[in-house]
TrEMBL record, chains A, B:
Name of the protein in its database record: RNA methyltransferase
InterPro entries hit by this protein: Alpha/beta_knot_MTases, Ribosomal_eL30-like_sf, rRNA_Methyltransferase, SpoU_MeTrfase, tRNA_m1G_MTases_N
Highest taxon in the source lineage: Bacteria
Bilayer-crossing regions: none
Domain tRNA/rRNA methyltransferase SpoU type: 119-257
Molecular-function GO term, any one: RNA binding
Organism listed in the record: Henriciella barbarensis
Length: 269, 269
């Protein structure tokens, strides 16, 4: 492991870690993303498809993290700084004292996802927690990947990665284009697309039988999917008690994915 | 509507709103709780079982909120202050500019819940977001109430209420005792208790048929339910993909509740 002591917050070697929050919110244009915390670092090292560029840890964390850090490739620098210097670089207190920087690299093309039996498709999901939770659920229920439109927020945002329990680092995803294009491409590839909606005329989820290839399509928090999209797919609702017509969007996805997974498993027996 | 202008942050009439965060975290001993935001205020006024004591709003919100405020009973004061005074009282910026204070009143006894067909039972849920999400899901899927042990956190904490989409204000709940007592009481009342667990020997949720009375039991984030509790109930798992054995606890509850609701609805046809 190549540790590099950092004593000055202006050291150019830790420049990718400067003002993390502000740059995350503005959107990074340098092709990099930041990972925070021990669990996500360990997934980044063990099973991610992304190239790690550097690790940045608080000095007091060097010893407790030695097992994970032993997996850092020898050519990747592990910057080590006193906690105060680290906080000064990042612009806020890094309580966990563990950061890493990786490169997004070449994005997958949509064809990468089309062999999957189950896909999750996110349309206009603008909340990082919801995108992260959607990835966690997609991974838990064996979806082969996630397709996101350009309006949805970035799964490689620091908080999305954490909420995804690291799934955003290894579950294949493609973020490109619009819902209209997604529907055309998925239908050509043989997917039955379940557009999740509170419409009372939609089919009730638990009475459906998943097809060999099923895509679960989730729309924006608040307004939900546009009618023009729903009308091109199979509208599917989750039965709810009177007076309620909405649950959290990632939760709706979890219910649909769990049902597809359990039903297709039962079919395999 | 009785509006009362407040110009001084030390005015004793707004004392219940002083240092909201600190007092929320320490736990209030005065039998009051605070509600934040327009949607939750509206539920507090329209369908909650709690007695509202006062409303506290930023001056600029008086006009846009006039419709909701018209529902405030005439004996309840609506304190109105400049935003800066309001923030100074609360101890942090109240972006939405809407607070209300209500009394917890006499708690329900457990018997209040025992007529329900479906109950949600929370054991050691120590995260306010998860308690709030669990209430939102319980309401969406028609559970008759929520039973919480003493270790779980307070559903009337400001953030829990908000995440619950206000369900914590109207869905009956009882927070008392321990998991052991809950199991004894629910079984005496005829409930089939589904203890949600990743145990591979547990029954798979989607292959079960809910009983006339079903209770969904959820355990702490991380460790999950204790074996001694699971062994007294029907262990139920949600099938997941290899390598994953855990999803968010409120999400697990949502999947089980949605399945019970859809299955019992289908049985009613």
């Amino acid at each position: 492991m190549r540790t590099v002591p950092i004593s000055d917050a202006d050291d150019p070697r830790v420049a990718p870690y400067v003002s993390i929050r502000e740059r995350d919110l503005a959107g990074r244009s340098d092709g990099r993303f930041i990972v925070e915390g021990k669990v996500t670092l360990s997934i980044l090292l063990e099973r991610s498809r992304f190239e790690i560029e550097s690790v940045f840890i608080g000095r007091s964390r060097l010893e407790p993290l030695s097992e994970i850090l032993a997996q850092v490739p020898p050519e990747v620098p592990v910057y080590v700084a006193p906690q105060a210097v680290m906080d000064q670089v990042a612009g806020f207190p890094i309580h966990r004292g563990v950061l890493a920087c990786a490169r997004k690299g070449q994005p997958f093309g949509v064809e990468k996802l089309l062999d999957a039996e189950t896909l999750l498709v996110l349309n206009g999901i603008s909340n990082h927690d919801n995108v992260g939770a959607a990835f966690r659920n997609a991974a838990a229920f064996g979806a082969g990947g996630v397709l996101l439109d350009e309006q949805s927020c970035d799964p490689l945002y620091r908080k999305s990665i954490r909420v995804s329990a690291g799934a955003a680092l290894w579950l294949p995803f493609v973020q490109a284009g619009q819902g209209e294009d997604h529907i055309t491409g998925l239908q050509s590839a043989g997917f039955d697309i379940w557009a999740m909606t509170p419409r009372t005329t939609a089919a009730e989820l638990h009475q459906l039988k998943p097809s060999a290839k099923t895509a679960i399509l989730l729309g924006p928090e608040g307004p939900g999917l546009e009618d023009a999209l729903i009308d091109r797919c199979r509208p599917v609702r989750i039965a709810m008690a009177g007076g309620f017509d909405s649950i959290n969007v990632a939760t709706a996805g979890a219910i649909a994915l769990a049902y597809c997974h359990a039903t297709s498993m039962a079919g395999d027996d």
